[in-house]
Amino acid sequence: MVGVVFHWDAKPYFDYSHQRLWYQQYEYSCRAFEAEKIVVVDPADAVSLGISKARNLETALRFFTGATPVLIHASGKEELSGFIHPIDAVYIVGPDYGSFDLPENSKSVRIPVARPVELWAATALSIVLYDRYLRT
């Protein structure tokens, strides 16, 4: 089983009339690379897309019983090129300007980049799901 949790970073200046477009970045990558379920962490309850939502990461992970949480982050412990994807995994992206309290059985992965810039969460997710698709 492959799942995805992403953090909806509600900002007061965000134009919520375009939330479907923002969400589609995640949805299309998940469809393309066979992730079976997406859950959004939405503490502000700002998303109204008819998708599975949770107020925090702990609640979101309940949708993925038995799966290994894998945080995709610039400071991840393992580089993607050597990362062994768990058979049952839930990939976690975001929040862009904060952190999650991860369970002890979690893994974390980073994507090496040519210049010191952080990738957008949806881009990083696509790269990791593609890597999983190629190697499993």
Strand content: 15-25%
Give average pLDDT, whole number.
85
Structural class: alpha/beta
CATH topology: Alpha/beta knot
* Uncertain ranges: none
Q: How many helical stretches?
A: 3
Share of residues in helices: 25-40%
Largest sheet: 7 strands, parallel
Helix and strand sequence:
EHEEHEEEEH
CATH superfamily annotation? SPOUT methyltransferase, trefoil knot domain
Main sheet: which strands, in order across?
3-2-1-6-4-7-5
How would you sum up this structure in a few lines?
By secondary structure, this protein is α/β, with parallel strands linked by helices. The protein has 3 helices and 7 strands.
Please describe what this structure looks like.
This protein is globular. Helix content is 25%, strand content 22%. It has helices at 19-32, 57-61, 121-135; strands at 2-7, 37-41, 52-54, 68-72, 78-79, 89-93, 107-110. It has one domain (2-135): Alpha/beta knot (3-Layer(aba) Sandwich). Helix 1 packs parallel to helix 3. It starts with a strand and ends with a helix. A seven-stranded parallel sheet has the order 3-2-1-6-4-7-5. By secondary structure, it is α/β, with parallel strands linked by helices. The chain contains three helices and seven strands.
List the helices and strands and how they pair.
Blueprint: E1 2-7, H1 19-32, E2 37-41, E3 52-54, H2 57-61, E4 68-72, E5 78-79, E6 89-93, E7 107-110, H3 121-135
Parallel strand pairs: 1-2, 1-6, 2-3, 4-6, 4-7, 5-7
Helix pairs in contact: 1-3
